[in-house]
Amino acid sequence: MLTLNVSHINHHSFILTGIPGMPEKNPWMAFPLGLLYTLTLLGNCTILSIIKMDRSLHEPMYYFLSILALSDVGLSMSTLPSMLSIFWFNAPEIPFDACITQMFFIHGFGVVESGVLVSMAFDRFVAIRDPLRYASVLTSGVIGKIGLGVIARTVCVVFPVPFLIKRLPFCSSNVLSHSYCLHQDAMRLACASIRVNILYGLITVICTLGLDALIILFSYMLILKTVLGIASWAERLKAFNTCLSHICAALLFYVPLIGVTMAHRFGKHLSPIVHTLMANVYLLLPPVLNPIIYSIKTKQIRKRIVQLFIRRKGRT
């Protein structure tokens, strides 16, 4: 009878984890996290404002970069509330509905970012393979349709996730492994079969992030073939240099993602701190480093940033 009653208990909140096994060290993370979020907002908002103000940057490549910056800001803002509540205010409890909402936005912005990286690979492919038709192929209308397609795919893929979690009973532990809510983390605490959740998550990852990575890889195989067909070494380097920023951004997104996936699948023997570190790297570093990469590697943006700082310095 006691077992029957316990099986009907369902938690109304989850407990988020800061530094596993060392909760007393949580306050030490407050300043670094605050710095990371500040750099994320400052860097991405600077990129967005420069592209908006400079009409010479109103080109397909920079439109996609704007969408990437917006998705980075959205991803950071999705993790910010729970991170601050743990490391700044020592309040690890999060309501069930708030956890599901955060889960939706974290996974959603992750799929959006992956879709944008695919779009940027297509942009580079057209620019290098057929530069004369670049402006006519990637018109504003086409870019808008690509953006809507990325958002529509994200909504269709991520929309079922909250319902898949909400149908599960949680009658034992309610302590999550991370400082934010993830589908694969929450479903492991359920007291019922999670086969549907596992299957849906696997299909989703393969059909979105996995397929996107393959498309990007195939695009760069075609780009490399085109670049190697250019006679001049100087022109080859110039063409390939236009892809470096996107290559770095793609590696920064997919390499930690693969690491987190492998750790969840095969690294059960690893320390919880390793899992937490890898998950935080996957979610926190790309939004911080993407603006830096594009500022350093993209001449036009670097030039505008230097001009912006010189102008402000002159005013003071």
UniProtKB/TrEMBL annotation:
Looking up InterPro entries in the UniProt record yields: GPCR_Rhodpsn, GPCR_Rhodpsn_7TM, Olfact_rcpt, OR51/52/56-like
Against Pfam families, the record matches this protein to: 7tm_4
Q: Matching Gene3D superfamilies, A to Z?
A: Rhodopsin 7-helix transmembrane proteins
Q: What Gene Ontology terms for biological process does this UniProt record contain?
A: cellular response to lipid
- Which parts of the chain span the membrane according to its record? 28-51, 63-88, 100-122, 142-165, 198-223, 244-267, 273-294
Q: What is its main location?
A: membrane
Q: Which residues form the signal peptide?
A: none
* Keyword presence, ATP-binding: no
Does Nucleotide-binding count among this protein's keywords? no
Record's bilayer topology term: Multi-pass membrane protein
Q: Which CDD domains match?
A: 7tmA_OR51-like
Q: Name one GO molecular function term.
A: olfactory receptor activity
Where the record annotates domain G-protein coupled receptors family 1 profile, the positions are 43-294
Q: Name one GO cellular component term.
A: plasma membrane
Family statement drawn from the similarity comment of this UniProt entry: Belongs to the G-protein coupled receptor 1 family.
Name listed for the protein in its UniProt record:
Olfactory receptor
